[in-house]
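INPUT
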Amino acid sequence: MTTTPLRKDAARNWDRIVAVARTLVDEGTPLQLNDVARRAGLGVGTVYRHFATPEALLEAVATPCLEALAAHGERALADADPWRALETFLTRTVEAQVTDASLAPVTAAATDTVPRTTELKNAVWEAGAVLLDRARRSGAVRPDLASADLVPLMCGIAYAVQVRGRAPADRIETAHRYLATLLEGLRAAPPTR
Amino acid sequence: MTTTPLRKDAARNWDRIVAVARTLVDEGTPLQLNDVARRAGLGVGTVYRHFATPEALLEAVATPCLEALAAHGERALADADPWRALETFLTRTVEAQVTDASLAPVTAAATDTVPRTTELKNAVWEAGAVLLDRARRSGAVRPDLASADLVPLMCGIAYAVQVRGRAPADRIETAHRYLATLLEGLRAAPPTR
Amino acid sequence: MTTTPLRKDAARNWDRIVAVARTLVDEGTPLQLNDVARRAGLGVGTVYRHFATPEALLEAVATPCLEALAAHGERALADADPWRALETFLTRTVEAQVTDASLAPVTAAATDTVPRTTELKNAVWEAGAVLLDRARRSGAVRPDLASADLVPLMCGIAYAVQVRGRAPADRIETAHRYLATLLEGLRAAPPTR
Amino acid sequence: MTTTPLRKDAARNWDRIVAVARTLVDEGTPLQLNDVARRAGLGVGTVYRHFATPEALLEAVATPCLEALAAHGERALADADPWRALETFLTRTVEAQVTDASLAPVTAAATDTVPRTTELKNAVWEAGAVLLDRARRSGAVRPDLASADLVPLMCGIAYAVQVRGRAPADRIETAHRYLATLLEGLRAAPPTR
DNA sequence: CATGAATGAGCCTTCATTCAT
DNA sequence: AATGAATGAAGGCTCATTCAT
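OUTPUT
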């Protein structure tokens, strides 16, 4: 896992590239490495040296956010109340998806380009799994949802919010509403019919 | 409402084009008009005459399914049990989304190419709205979900199913599970906190 | 030279097509037979039956104007003053070129599509030739300009006017100014140097 | 004014492209970037990188000739005889137009693609303006022609020569004859009527 | 390491012309 | 005669990727 640290100038370029890509993602502009290079004032070759594909770059953009989610997952495990821990975790996850356009494609991708991304995605899924298990064992959650369903469902909510349309400002509120509904369903007893 | 009926040969080509497009959609291949033309054994110009853009063609592919949903919506209104009516309607909608890859993009699109598509989409949304209203008035549904939320939520579930991955065969089952959870949340009393 | 007269409806279509083409020429829109057909509310085939190529149609559009010029040429021959006859003829020619966008391409074309066009072009050139000869013999014109130079020079003036730019309204005035200068040169004694 | 000098290989390609374009222009073949690329043995992208549009390429082709004209204009100002200076300048201009097919479209174009082209065109027009002014003040030229008329008139003569037809060899002679006539008209006193 | 010129497959679109109805 | 659907060559342009400098 030890990566050779980048030379100082290379590191500066790396940062510049990711910063530009971040801007593009926020603007909704599709990531094109040539484009990124031009905007960063760097040669295409340089960008390609750092990121072999647009996906790799996108993963780099998404990484900080994934790290934050993973970290939050760790912390949530310390919460004594299993349901509250789960609820907060899912809330953070959905908020992140709605706020950061880089997350959806990275999360939905079946395979990753950079190993670090896979690690982080696993960490988040794993945290969700543990939190769900704890909540289920505490009786707070219906039994027919697997831990592997959590992240997909959060992606689904984010997608629903996007389909709903509305101004970016309203999105968080909509997301909370959708999540609240789903949580209500999660909490309920197993389907009776 | 009166469209000039197509000449016999033109109609045959129209059908062939849509059929080819249907296949491509099912394969997950992106629709490209030149490609469609080649596979249909027709000139590019012919395809362009019938469908000016890939979106128009995709709408044509999705139309039968949208018609079925709209028709089901009509029928659901006849059901005496408001909750069951809503439940069945949403189930059909989600099943359609999961089964037919043409629906998601058409449903999510903010604007349509063919007027007929807009009509059908409106009919489906409208049916959902009425069904939700009836269910809400009968006390079966929490009050904080608007009718405009229904379709987005169904799209979200379909998306979640796709993120979940799995073989196509398992998808319907997953969709049912996710919908069941959401319905449980819908049915519950308003959030207590 | 006897052409079978068109059936009444065919004649009506012919007129409609030429009228539409006239409009397009005046708008500066390039003549496309498909386009003409659509605007005339006729099938493409019909337009093609009447005019095999865009050039043929353009010639039909230009014909009335060419006829007027040819007729004027005839009349000019009756003028007793050879110089005045020539001057008026050239003035009409330039005015026509500047006013009617269909003339330039038809006049400049090396070969014609419709025999009638060739006849008319010849008639105009011939009239110019005779008028120039008469003027030259009367001593009013320098000897080193051939009759075959007249029409090209008029085209040149029209082109110069167009390069000059300016609003259509000013064009006639500019054309008159350019023609006046050229006529002054024509009238002068043969080059002395 | 400072343009980054091209890399050696890029410069070689630039030259090759312009050379091919020059040939096409001389042949009377319309400039098509794909075509140019093929004939130059280069990728389309390379040609597009150098010249975004056919117009830009055409301007590059015309540039040397425009430079020569502009240079000649400068030199003509040194001639002590105002009329002779003007006469020589116009002769060079017409000869260029008749000889080089790239000039007419570039000169007639209302707007340019490359700034350098605009500069050169302005320089030529400006030289003409000064020469005409001087000649007019010396009494050698009729007063009703503005300096803005010079270039259009030269274009007009070139166009007339082209309409006249004839073998390329005869064109220069024809151009001289037409220019001589026009100059005679220029030199004359204002119209007496 | 950085650069950015070159590449060319690949997609899109138009339009003159033909021909079945 | 009239119609207009079909054709497909032709041309335009982009962009991910490579590689000489």
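end of record. The mean pLDDT of chain D is 91.
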